[in-house]
Amino acid sequence: LPVIIDFKTALRALGVGHGEAYRLAAAGEFEAASGCPVRQRGRVRVVTRPDLFRALGLPPDLTRKPEAEAS
Prior knowledge:
Layout: E1 4-6, H1 7-14, H2 18-26, H3 30-34, E2 39-41, E3 44-48, H4 49-55, H5 67-70
Antiparallel strand pairs: 1-3, 2-3
């Protein structure tokens, strides 16, 4: 995953409904409800990969092993 993740992708990963998530984000309550802070980039909402991983209970520095090492 990239370092910056679009809001819709984060919603799917977190299992949060679209309407509810946008309502929470507009009210500034998304982080309290999901554990994942939202950042505003112009008119676009995004989350960072480390923040999303923390909210999912994963290590924030988790990376995929190269294919050669995965075997």
